[in-house]
Amino acid sequence: MSKDIPAQEQDHQPGTEAEMEPKPEFMPVYAGSGRLKDKVAVITGGDSGIGRAAAVLFAREGANVAILYKDEHGDADTTIDMIDAEGGEGMKIALDIGDKQAVEAAIQQVIDRFGRINILVNNAAEQHVQDNVEDISEDQLLRTFKTNIFGQFFAVQAVLGQMEQGDSIINITSVTAFRGQDQLVDYSSTKGAILAFTRALSSKLAERGIRVNAVAPGPIWTPLIPASFPADKVESFGQNVPLGRPGQPNEVAPCILFLACQDSSYITGQTLHPNGGELIGG
């Protein structure tokens, strides 16, 4: 991808991929090899960005995929079409991921249709730029935590009862969990919580043979970026990392696939870092 992104912004969270220019790159780069044959995956925030790229890659590798999303119906329809084109069976459910009852109902719909869930990718998130910590309202704080970490808890609680040995949970955290972001204090806090959640949950579920890992992307060109930052900031997005450019969703999806399939059968409680070369601990 070129470093050049035209100035742009969107006025709604978590943003719409169809409105972005240039369009994010989500198609898999390599032919599938059946690594998820006969598996069923649930991906939250699966309509666009990293979630879409993972959904299409999973379908190419043989999985049926249910995407949970907020209200970006056009993006969701496009993702389902791409899942179908890759030979998978797609399913979409619109909901508020921070609503426990809605999450439970959605997971049950997936089980009713496909009979099981083998892979959960907790990807849905929102973020809101604030220059001053004092300006983060109680409503914003609650909303960000409900979407970013409560939603992950709710999804895990809903799927665990029918997950079996060999199944996998992948939580999407962020580089901000490790080095912070002073305009995204509440968002960074949720991503740190996700990191701790991943480590604690991996220990708890190890005896069941269910692996729990995380992916911590750096600056990735997704709808959340123009939906969060002013246009002039979007124009220079991602240029401060060693590789000098933002990453693409299809550069993150292979990390998620690796953690979802048996290639990573001896890995749990760990975090992968597709972040353009930023050196961080953990």
TrEMBL record:
<comment type="similarity">
    <text>Belongs to the short-chain dehydrogenases/reductases (SDR) family.</text>
</comment>
<keyword id="KW-0560">Oxidoreductase</keyword>
<protein>
    <submittedName>
        <fullName>SDR family oxidoreductase</fullName>
    </submittedName>
</protein>
<dbReference type="GO" id="GO:0016614">
    <property type="term" value="F:oxidoreductase activity, acting on CH-OH group of donors"/>
</dbReference>
<dbReference type="InterPro" id="IPR020904">
    <property type="entry name" value="Sc_DH/Rdtase_CS"/>
</dbReference>
<dbReference type="Pfam" id="PF13561">
    <property type="entry name" value="adh_short_C2"/>
</dbReference>
<feature type="compositionally biased region" description="Basic and acidic residues">
    <location>
        <begin position="9"/>
        <end position="24"/>
    </location>
</feature>
<dbReference type="InterPro" id="IPR002347">
    <property type="entry name" value="SDR_fam"/>
</dbReference>
<dbReference type="InterPro" id="IPR036291">
    <property type="entry name" value="NAD(P)-bd_dom_sf"/>
</dbReference>
<feature type="region of interest" description="Disordered">
    <location>
        <begin position="1"/>
        <end position="24"/>
    </location>
</feature>
